[in-house]
Amino acid sequence: MQVELLDVVATVSDREWAEEWAGQLDDLLLEVGRFFPRVDVRRRAAACVRGLLGPVSRKNGWQLAEYAGDGAPWNQQHLLDRARWDVDGMRDFTRRHVVAALADDGEGAGPGGAGVLVVDETGFAKRGTASAGVAR
């Protein structure tokens, strides 16, 4: 069995899996809420995470805003640019959470033992001649 950041048993139905995963995401968002001192910023951060994990075709400010129910990206831009929240605390929490999930404790880490983290920053292929940043 493969260890994932949100540990869900592999023998459940898709609906059960989605409900369990959503519950674990809610718990995680409650736990990181302490890094966002204002309720409105906390809600924006949760909406941003849900949009990044959700079925949004492109993860840009407009589409994340629409997924969150906003008419424009200003709330998402405020979160990332001007809102006050504990960036260092969130970074440290995220690091601890990922390291704990990837730790080699011998239980459920898969056939090879330890978990593996792969970071891929290639993004999506640029197409056309009018898009911003067409050239790689």
Q: Order of helices and strands, N to C?
A: HHHHH
Q: How many runs of DSSP E, i.e. beta strands?
A: 0
Roughly how many Å is the radius of gyration? 18 Å
| Biggest sheet details | none
Q: Work out the helix count.
A: 5
Hey, roughly how much beta strand do the residues contain? under 5%
What structural category arises from helix and sheet content? mainly alpha
Low-confidence segments, given as residue ranges, are 108-113
The percent of residues in helical segments reads: 40-55%
Report the mean per-residue pLDDT as an integer. Answer: 78
Distance from N terminus to C terminus (CA atoms, Å) equals: 38 Å
Gross geometry: globular
